[in-house]
Every structure is written in C-alpha cells, then in structure tokens.
Amino acid sequence: MPLAHDYKIISIDEAHFRRDADKRRCWSPIGKTPIVHVNGSTQNTNVYGAYTNDGKFHYKFVEKQLAVKTVAFFERLRKIYRKIIFIVDKARWHTAKIVEEYISKNSENLKIVFFPITSPDLNPVEECWRQTRNNVTANKAFSSCIELKKELRRHWNRQKFQHKSINYLMP
Fold first, then answer.
1. Which residue, 76, 85, 141, 171, could crosslink 21 as a Cys pair with Cβ 3.0–4.6 Å?
2. pTM of the predicted model, to two decimals?
3. Which of 66, 70, 67, 48 is closest to 57 using CA atoms?
4. pLDDT given at position 143
5. What is the layout of strands, in order, in the sheet containing 84-88?
6. Average pLDDT in the 123-148 region?
7. Residue 22 pLDDT more than 70?
8. How far is it, in rounded angstroms, from Cα 63 to Cα 73?
9. What are all long-range contacts of 116-119, with beta carbons under 8 Å and residues at least 24 apart?
10. What is the DSSP letter of 82?
C-alpha cells in the first residue's frame, strides 16, 4: 500500500502579519490617486500554518517561531491525524535538536521531510499566505493585534483553500 494512504501529508510554514497596511496595487477611478490609510505600527502577529494533502488548513498564533512552539504545533496536529509526514523548510526551529528528538520519539507515526533550500514556491502553505494577504491585509491597517487576529481567524475559519498540494510538491 502506498505511503500516502497510510500517512497524512502536511506542509508547514510560518508567516507574520503586520498591523499596518500591507500596501498593494489597487484600483481607483481614472484621475484619482488611491489612498491607503496606514498607522505606522510595527506590531505583528506570527502564525504557524499547516496545509494537508486533502486541502485542510490549520493554524496557530505564536509570539515567536521557536523549536518548542514547532513541537507543540506538531503535537496538536498529531492529535488530529494519527500518522503524519511533515514537510517543512530548514528554518532553525524545524531542525533543532528538540524537534529531532520529538520526531524520533514518535517515529512510528511521524516522519519529517525538508523542502530544498530557497524553494518557497514548492510549499503550498505559501499560497494560503498569498490569498490571506490579498483578501485580509492588503491595503488595510488594523487598530490592534487583537483585531488583526480576529480578521485572520474569520478568514481562515470560513475560507476553503482550493489549491492542490500535489501540484506544489511535484511540479
């Protein structure tokens, strides 16, 4: 039986979203300069994202990307899916000893595979971030990190991403 039938394949990535407007090109009437309101804030929120081979998106807000947070996110996913192949980049919080030990301790049910260095285009979670930025944070400033997180949660809880993981993993 093929490995994909036994294991859930989950791509992982992290992103940060700023409170200030993510300035993008936008439309405006001919002759009018578009106005994007900004607040100058440097505050942001960090997010772990996971996209499964059957199109489910999971997320977790964190203060900072750390190896212990990676293990906690992996454990959360392990409680949902029994057998998992995690596909991650080589960020230091993915390659840390604590992560290696966690995967090794659970090696019956967990595997980890690394994307090639400098190849974010292979990670389907990047498409989730792109769509989120286009639909939630583009040209919009938020009054607080709480409001930003609320909008992100609202989007992810109702948005069903349609892209196929296999198209990214096997280009």
1. 141
2. 0.84
3. 48
4. 86
5. 57-62, 44-52, 8-18, 84-88, 110-114
6. 89
7. no
8. 13
9. 117/89, 117/90
10. S
